[in-house]
Amino acid sequence: MAALLEIKDLRVEIEGKSILSGVDLTVRKGEIHALMGPNGSGKSTLSNVLMGHPKYVVTGGKILFDGKDLTALKPHERAKQGIFLAFQYPTAIPGVTVANFLRTAIKAVRGEGAALKNFRKALRDKMALLEMDEKFASRYVNDGFSGGEKKRLEILQMAMLEPRLALLDETDSGLDIDALRIVSNGINKLAGPETGVLLVTHYQRILDYVKPHFVHVLIGGQIVHSGGPEMAKELESKGYDWLKEEEKAPAAA
After folding, report:
1. What element of type H or E holds 222?
2. Which pLDDT belongs to residue 175?
3. Which SS3 state, helix, strand or coil, does residue 157 take?
4. What's the CA gap between 130 and 156, in Å, rounded?
5. Main-chain dihedrals φ then ψ at residue 185, nearest 5 degrees
6. Which of 26, 27, 47, 171 is the most exposed place for a label (fewest CB within 10 A)?
């Protein structure tokens, strides 16, 4: 199957400091990839760079989406291509209701407004999927939301926008057990054969619910190891130090 996302020797810096130093990663349709690594390894940087955050400077390599180079595209242009980023720290927007926010987002991405009747039905259906009360739609975006509510709204946006590539940046952070289960179930129901998912996480616990096809470890701005879903449990029990030591060890003659 042809690649949906191809990252080739991606090098990124911010304010002259190197953050990513040669990342290679391929995601195909229907695949769920988990990206793990210690603090400061560049995981969230990779998510933001893939979405086109302007503060990061790409100094080398390419980002290909369906074979097209996206490296120079603005965030809204990438969104129109079908890329979605769920933020680690969602922003509150007082005065803007969830329903109006979602309709505006759909219009911006698809170039046309959803018919009011169809939009309302779709919103009700997706909220039911995420076990959200319908009154949630009339609340202001993330204003006074709990951590779990913020993350569920991120997944609701994903559900409504129906992206081809979903970048989930530490969606599990700050969630209690019940919220983690609900959010994970939502991700599982939305991840389909036409969608690629890159899930950034510190912990193995979300991977008990969202089963990845591949697990990658990012250390020092590079992917140093890749494996199957069992890799996450190994990291949970052994930590990252053993991989760091492997990286330091000289290659066999």
Report:
1. strand 222-227
2. 87
3. helix
4. 7
5. -60, -40
6. 26
Count helices and strands (H / E) in the chain. Answer: 8, 12
Alpha carbon of 44 to those of 33, 56, 90, 140: distances in Å?
A: 14, 11, 14, 26
Bridge partners, 14 (sequence order): 17
Secondary structure letter of residue 205 according to DSSP = G
Q: Average per-residue pLDDT in the chain?
A: 90
CA angle 199, 218, 247 (to 5 degrees): 155
Q: How far apart are CA 71 and CA 20, in angstroms?
A: 14
**Residues β-bridged to residue 171:** none
Cα–Cα distance, 99 to 229 (Å, whole number): 36
d(CA 247, CA 240): 11
pTM of the model: 0.91
**Residue whose tokens read 């290909």:** 64
Domain boundaries, the chain: 3-93+163-248
> In Å, how far are 6, 35, 61, 195, 245 from 25, measured between CA atoms?
6, 10, 12, 16, 22
Q: Distance (Å, rounded) from C-alpha 174 to C-alpha 88?
A: 10
**pLDDT value at residue 129:** 84
The top-level CATH class assigned to 3-93+163-248 is alpha beta
Q: 17-54 pLDDT, tens per residue?
A: 999 999 999 999 999 999 999 888 899 999 999 999 99
* Per-residue pLDDT at 246: 62
